[in-house]
Amino acid sequence: MIDAPEKTAWVIGASSGLGAALATRLANEGYQVAISARRAERLQEMVSHQPKMHAFALDVADHDATTACANEILDRFGHLDLIVFCAVHGGETLGFHDRATKGMAIGLLGVTAALEPILSSMKERKSGHIAFIGSPVGFRALPGTGSYGVIKSALHYLAEQLKIELSIYSINVQLILPGFVDTELTQKNEFPMPFLMSVDEATDRIMRGMRKPSRFRVAFPRRLMWPMRLLGMLPDHLYHWVMSKLVKSVDKHQPRN
Ligand SMILES: NC(=O)c1ccc[n+]([C@@H]2O[C@H](COP(=O)([O-])OP(=O)(O)OC[C@H]3O[C@@H](n4cnc5c(N)ncnc54)[C@H](OP(=O)(O)O)[C@@H]3O)[C@@H](O)[C@H]2O)c1
């Protein structure tokens, strides 16, 4: 076991984008940070710059390996104060069912596989912090988001369910809802991305939000979130009418994973 009197965190999906930036911030703030993703060489490079980071190469779609990795991290760190789920299916060209299968294996079942041992440990300690990176596309059905929207919507449900159920163990759960952020994930998008943020700006906002445990949803930027929330409050027939107007324009784009 490493000597971990400091806070400890595990960031899943830490080899690029928001996960890499969050892992770096947490380590710079003094956390011992376990970083996981498939690209082991990227993790090794991060570790070489920041000794508070520890690489645990992992494909979260392999659920047995994910649970084993969670146990290994608990053994090495002794406990986990924070777990952040960032992994997302990058979206190679697949059919509808295969995209959904792969997306869920990573973005939903990868989460539950990692959480199983972590939750037991956090419950025992009556302490812990779980942060899910969701997406505003999970608010309500949006055309063109494919299974990405379905998976995020399920993740939001899981986050809220855990928020309620884990409150008796003093385990905090947060749902992070960023607008468009300039990462590998979005760089292949061909549609307009209003209010696109840099990874640095989004990471600042997420770190600020994670320091306010009373906030369940950390949603930003407001200028994108408010219209989306208002749209989400429309009665079904009106919402469906508005969205159906969008269908033609999104139909020519490849749906996300
Ligand atoms: N960018 C945005 O505009 C935006 C907006 C809202 C929400 N989000 C959410 O933010 C999170 C981070 O996305 P990002 O934009 O930072 O994307 P990103 O740069 O593509 O990062 C995705 C991360 O997931 C990892 N990953 C993918 N498949 C994996 C697997 N099977 N096992 C383990 N790790 C895996 C990738 O690493 P490897 O390839 O090395 O495995 C990478 O580290 C996602 O949940 C995304 O849905 C992003």
UniProtKB/TrEMBL annotation:
Gene3D superfamilies: NAD(P)-binding Rossmann-like Domain. Keywords: Oxidoreductase. InterPro entries: NAD(P)-bd_dom_sf, SDR_fam. It comes from the Bacteria. The keyword Metal-binding does not apply. Pfam families: adh_short. Belongs to the short-chain dehydrogenases/reductases (SDR) family. This is Oxidoreductase. It comes from Maritalea porphyrae. The lineage of its organism: Bacteria, Pseudomonadati, Pseudomonadota, Alphaproteobacteria, Hyphomicrobiales.
